[in-house]
Amino acid sequence: MCIEDLIELAGGASNIYRVLLPEGNVSFAVRDTDVVRALPSEVVLEKVLDEWHLTCSRDETVTEDALFRLGREIEAHQRAQLTDLAQPVSCHYRPSWHIAPPRGLINDPNGFIFHNGQYHLFYQWSPIGCAHTDKYWVHMLSDDLVNWKWDDVALTPSDWFDSHGVYSGHAVSLDNELMVFYTGNVRLGEERHRQTMQCAAISTDGGQLHKIGPLIRELPPGVTEHTRDPKIIRRNGKWIMFLGTQTTAMQGRLAAYHSEDLHHWQFDNLYGHELGDFGYMWECPDIFALNQQYCFVFAPQGIKSESEFNTVPHQNRIAQVSFNDQDELSISKLQVLDYGFDFYAPQSMETQDGRRVMCGWMGLPDELKHPTCRSGWIHQLTALRELELVDGRIVQRPLQELASLRGELREIQLDNGSTDLATKTFELFVDMEWGSRLRLFEDEHYYVEIYLDPIKHRLLLDRSNTQIEEGDTVREVELSSGNVSLQILADNSSLEIFINHGEAVMTARVFTPESATRLSVKDTAVNVQVYELQAPLAPYRS
Ligand code: FRU
Questions:
Q1: Which of 112, 505, 533, 535 has its CA 20 to 30 A from that of 68?
Q2: Which of 5, 108, 175, 431 is catalytic?
Q3: What share of the chain is helix, strand, coil (3-state, %, to 5)?
């Protein structure tokens, strides 16, 4: 059966919303079975889970070029559906200066890069509902890393190699070209058998990306289809691609490939054996140098935290990496990047003036029940933070440019008392003593509490008295002694707590009513400095 005839039988390209290539066959998922024509015996229409698939054996007319053309029609249809979905829903939990999806679900930041005079940041987006369904990439642009504007939906899950999601990846800026690398996620058959390929897309003018299809189709030996999230670096005159992966023995590892031209890739090695059993999968690798020291950031899944309060198996870590003469790497000195509740799958980039700036997903893979879902959206990205390596330790501070959002400074003295800040969007500085408590986002029923436990010398962040519907409620971090200084970024339903000038950070989604704007302290007297933060450009389609 030639491809044109098959499209015709399916009721035309406009009735096809997915193309799949299961072993030796071609399948189209069709919208409306009523417009499917009378089928010859070699073509089958069958229900696969909740989709109708028209399948026949693949002949020589079903070329990748022909499928690519069909992909463009599917993409045009997907884009047309997005017009309304790109308008933001209103909800009092929405952030005023963080990036959140207009509606639907946001997860990882992607392709974060400075290219052609602008900062580019993409993100994973499921436009429909608050679930992880077929992912799109949204493209945001900024001149200053603070004001972000929605540029467009950059990539849609339109093709046979990414039909179930344009998954995460990074970008490379080369001359005038922006090249993004991502994992094409495909699910086949009733068992939803996973198939992953590493794909790319190119923009020659900084605008629309054009897919160039899969560049790595085969898996490296000894790993499962859980192989994804390409990160590319340039080292010793060649390109190296890192992928997060899972071995067939169910251990998380890092796969490395190299290339001369960014298009043809050769597998080199799996790394990370020195960590032994450290999770069943490593997602979202990022590798970059801080003061000439390479660092490796990743999201191991299936690990246990040292804290009894942290029951989430999906975590974040930063490690140091050294390369030998053959460019083989070894990983050491693991540190927790963020001790809060919601920090996952971060990406970083180098600013024009050489700072390493990181953005994370303020959310977690299994967390799907937030009060925001009733308004049709879930999750957001974190504030941007700057990373430095000081005496071998990672230090993280809020992006300097965020200071441009500050309004007037308010100095407040509190002695076992409270004050109404009349806003949930602020930056706050306070020095606290051991044994004292600070409550934020407070009303008569709800609050978030920070407690400095003098016995165990740890800071406890407790959101059990909030409207949280799912997830852990307490996080802790052990701190060095002396007073504890806090810089807190608040944005309606999030807190990012930078402790002791970047010694540790805690990121948290915290839901309390809109009117819960009080701040109080217990067992201490403190001077608090507060800036209300002004909203930058709204990052939605205008
Ligand atoms: C991490 C992750 C990535 C994957 C993406 C899919 O949150 O699972 O490994 O590429 O999300 O949205």
A1: 112
A2: 108
A3: 10, 50, 40
Does residue 143 have an active-site annotation? Answer: no
Q: Which of 271, 463, 284 is nearest to 358 (CA)?
A: 284
Closest approach atom of ligand 1 to CA 365: 7
Range of the domain at 432: 405-533
The number of domains in the chain is 2
List all residues 6 or more positions away from 470 whose beta carbon is below 8 Å from its beta carbon: 367, 368, 369, 370
Q: Which of 47, 62, 77 is the last residue of a domain?
A: 62
C-beta of 379 in contact with ligand 1 (< 6 A) = no
In the chain, the percentage of residues whose pLDDT exceeds 90 is 95
Q: Which atom of ligand 1 is nearest to the CA of 135?
A: 12
CB of 490 closer than 6 angstroms to any ligand 1 atom: no
Q: Ligand 1: does its nearest atom lie under 6 Å from the Cβ of 345? A: yes
pLDDT in tens, 336-395: 999 999 999 999 999 999 999 999 999 999 999 999 999 999 999 999 999 999 999 999
User: Is residue 261 domain-resident?
Assistant: no
Ligand 1 centre from 161 Cα, in Å? 16
Give, for ligand 1, the residue of 110, 124, 155 to mutate: max count of ligand atoms closer than 8 Å to Cβ.
124
Q: Choose the final residue of a domain: 41, 62, 83.
A: 62
Is residue 229 one of the residues assigned to a domain? no
- This prediction has a pTM of 0.97
In a domain, 247, yes or no: no
User: What CATH number does the domain containing 35 carry?
Assistant: 3.30.1360
Residue located via tokens 């440019």: 401
Ligand 1 proximity of 108 Cβ (cutoff 6 Å)? yes
Ligand 1, closest atom to CA 344? 7
For residue 132, tell me if it sits in a domain.
no
Smallest CA-to-CA distance from 364 within 333, 395, 341 is with: 341
Domain CATH for 414: 2.60.120.560
CA dihedral sign, ordered 179, 343, 183, 304 = positive
Kindly report, residue by residue over 22-54, the tens digit of the pLDDT: 999 999 999 999 999 999 999 999 999 999 999
User: Cα–Cα distance between 34 and 44 in angstroms, integer?
Assistant: 15
Q: Is the CB of 162 under 6 A from ligand 1?
A: no
CA dist 370 and 362 (Å) reads 12
Q: How many whole angstroms from 499 Cα to the centroid of ligand 1?
A: 29
